[in-house]
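Deliverable D5.2: sample structural annotation.
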Amino acid sequence: MTATQTDAVEFSRPVDLSRLGDATIVQEIEATEGERRALARRFDLLGIDSLHAKVDIRRVQGGTAVRLAGHVSAAVTQSCVVTLNPVENRIEEDFTVLYAPQAAVEAAMIGADADMDLPEPLPEGALDIGEAVAQQLSLALDPFPRAPGAEIDPEWRGDAKEERENPFARLATFRKNPNSSG
């Protein structure tokens, strides 16, 4: 992510790639209250009480790519998909992202499996580890949070066991007696 792009993100922690050598850089980052509020709006959450990450950044593949590996910890409050009541969740997630030059990303896409993790385009100038952590947080969120005891009415799920006429019953009757009008 370039320096001009980081102005628009809620949780920006750019790392100058020109300063990244062969050694691994370890960084710990934590979102401020304002950043957590902005991320909660972005991800349609009721709130984010804490967001912390520890990441390792290093050059790989002969210095042409950058590997970002880390752990994100967060306490979030989501809306129950059934009752809309608050549901508190704790997120503890390890992640790894490979950033490669655009040509390598395009080459990796050719013949890639649907399950295969593809590299991300390597930004020029700076890599925004805050935005990378925010994206990992969004991937770790429970897509269908439920409050304890919250259940969907069986009628809405289609589980209701009501007697229905078999649509082929009439055809069977017609086949036995083709002269009937059904």
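Annotation notes: Residues 5-151 form one domain. The radius of gyration is 26 Å.
The annotation will be released with the project's public dataset once the embargo ends.
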